[in-house]
Design a protein that fits this description.
Blueprint (H helix, E strand, L loop, with lengths): L1 E7 L7 E5 L3 E5 L13 E8 L11 E6 L8 H10 L6 H8 L5 E4 L2 E5 L5 E6 L7 E3 L8 E6 L7 E3 L13 E6 L7 E2 L12 E3 L7 E2 L12 E3 L21 E3 L7 E2 L12 E3 L7 E2 L11 E3 L7 E2 L12 E3 L8 E2 L12 E3 L3 H10 L15 E6 L5 H15 L6 E3 L10 H10 L1 E8 L1 H4 L2 H17 L4 E5 L10 H8 L4 E3 L4 H14 L13
Parallel strand pairs: 1-4, 5-8, 8-10, 9-11, 10-12, 12-14, 13-15, 14-16, 16-17, 17-19, 18-20, 19-21, 21-23, 22-24, 23-25, 26-27, 26-28, 28-29, 29-30
Antiparallel strand pairs: 2-3, 2-5, 6-7
Helix pairs in contact: 5-7
Length: 527
């Protein structure tokens, strides 16, 4: 059985997680641990404090290294962290003061450099750290990383690097970069120049309103680009031509209004273009120069008509989806004359029609009832909203739904002795319904949003609509987290508490109705 020694400098107040090989998590503080990871026979031991050395000795390849936040924690620790600070945790505090040279050096609030890492990392998770700028120079010529995750880290700007000053071969070795749920507003020219091996770039859930036709220059290996859920309203001509091998683009959930084929000039290898729910009203007539495009998805927009030569140039198009455009009453017969290879044309949302025709208007629901679950209702709420649960929700359940005898009321009812996240997942998995109360304070809470994400992931796993959102107050659109906006856009169940008496009666009646059964989902929610 192989063994590896790992040394760190300093006394860690926070836990450090190493997910090695099969992403099996080893949770350790300073001290000696030995963990046999099933068939992999991989052992990590002798984690010791040392003032002289901070090198991970002997490890050359790690499957998954997580220095992001939140880490695994007990319920008591989670409540302590949550009570101490509502702000996003700042790794600068942990690493600058605890282990100056472990993995990252922070200088003046920014990350200076990697140091002393294994030479190859499958996934480096840096989610939820506090870092205003993503500096390309951080990653020059250091570790080979398959996937770098930096979601929800407050990144406002990408700082490019002058590659003319970079030594040959000293380029980032990252294949997949994820910067989802940050606050980027634009992508500067040559933003990621030097990322010669980058194949996948995810920029979902930012505030990007504009890009330059040189934003993606230098990304010659880029294949997949996601700009899902941003604020883009227009694009320059040949926006993506610099990324010469780009194959898949997702521009869904933007504010485009008009789709201009010239945006994609120069994207000769583009095969899939998805622009779902982006308020598109018209398509500019002009030749498409993306001659290899095979899939074009324009569903859930506001298209009124498709005229002659709308798709001129798409000789290899096989799938065209314009479903959900409920105002699309006019489609010229000549609109598809140039699309000689078309194999699939989707014009209407057949899901509702199918249910009406086959099951006679009855929704497809789960076979199990609430009585078949360990818990009939799992109610999740922020500590600051507990008063509403005690004053309103509990009396309602006692008076109108007394048959619900097995209800989880927040963290206080979680299984004692379990890790916090494990206990949360257990009640989500074993509850008929999970109801999350949303307020301005709850959407600012990292732990609370983690609970929501776990509930949605469980919905995807079961293909059942088991989650209900209840808005206790109005929340500005700009303040709504990406995942909440995504759920609302998918028409997932939600309720809004009102002040007038009649509205409140309707509100409580809807809660009763929502508890009856779990509807089957037609598709998964990207999280």
């Amino acid at each position: 059985m192989a063994s590896y020694g790992v040394q760190f400098t300093g006394k860690f107040g926070a836990h450090v997680i190493f997910s090695v090989l099969r992403k099996v998590d080893i949770e350790a503080t300073i001290g000696e641990i030995v963990q046999d990871l099933a068939a992999d026979n991989f052992v990590v031991k002798n984690i010791k404090a040392s003032k002289e050395n901070c090198d991970p000795v002997g490890i050359t390849r790690v499957k998954h290294l997580s220095i992001g936040y939140p880490l695994y924690s007990s319920a008591a620790q989670a409540r302590g962290i949550r009570g101490a600070s509502r702000r996003r945790p700042n790794l600068e505090t942990h690493f600058r003061h605890e282990c100056r040279d472990l993995c990252i050096v922070f200088v003046n609030g920014g990350m200076k450099a990697f140091g002393n890492l294994p030479t190859v990392i499958g996934t480096l998770n840096m989610n939820n750290i506090k870092l205003a700028t993503f500096d390309v120079g951080y990653f020059m010529g250091h570790v080979e990383i398959d996937r770098l995750l930096m979601d929800s880290s407050g990144i406002k700007y990408i700082h490019p690097v002058n590659t003319t000053l970079v030594q040959k071969g000293n380029v980032p070795l990252i294949k997949e970069l994820t910067l989802n749920f940050n606050i980027l507003s634009n992508i500067p020219r040559y933003a990621l120049r030097g990322f010669e091996k980058l194949q996948v770039l995810n920029l979902q859930g930012n505030r990007i309103s504009s890009i330059n036709n040189e934003s993606f220059c230098g990304l010659h290996a880029l294949v997949d680009l996601s700009l899902f859920y941003n604020k883009i309203n227009s694009l320059p001509r040949a926006s993506f031509a610099c990324a010469s091998n780009l194959t898949n683009i997702d521009l869904s959930h933007n504010n485009l209004a008009t789709l201009d084929p010239r945006w994609f000039d120069g994207s000769l290898y583009l095969r899939s273009l998805v622009i779902d729910q982006s308020a598109i009203r018209r398509i500019t007539v002009g030749p498409w120069k993306t001659t290899n495009l095979q899939t074009l998805v324009l569903k859930n927009n506001d298209l009124h008509s498709l005229s002659h030569n709308t798709f001129n140039g798409l000789a290899n198009l096989k799938t065209l989806d314009v479903s959900g455009n409920f105002n699309l009453f006019q489609m010229s017969k000549a609109a598809l004359t140039s699309v000689g290879s078309l194999e699939s044309l989707v014009m209407t949302d057949l899901r509702q029609f199918t249910m009406k025709a086959i099951v006679g208007y009855h929704e497809i629901t789960e076979d199990r009832t609430a009585e078949d679950y360990e818990f009939q209702l799992n109610l999740m709420f922020h500590d600051g909203d507990e008063w509403w649960v005690n004053d309103c929700m509990k009396p309602f359940l006692e008076q109108r739904m007394p048959h619900l005898g097995r209800v989880i009321f927040g963290d206080a009812d979680l299984h004692p002795g379990s890790f916090y996240l494990n206990a949360i997942y257990d009640v989500i998995e074993n509850s008929h319904k999970t109801m999350l109360l949303l307020s301005n304070r709850s959407v600012d809470d990292t732990w609370y949003m983690t609970k929501l994400r776990m509930a949605v992931e469980h919905m995807n796993d079961t293909k059942l609509e088991k989650v209900i959102l209840i808005f206790l107050e109005d929340i500005d659109d700009d303040h709504l987290p990406y995942l909440v906006r995504l759920l609302l856009s998918r028409n997932e169940p939600y309720l809004l508490l009102t002040e007038d008496e009649e509205g409140q009666e309707v509100f409580w009646a809807k809660i009763q109705k929502s508890m009856r059964s779990n509807r089957q989902m037609n598709n998964v929610i990207p999280v």
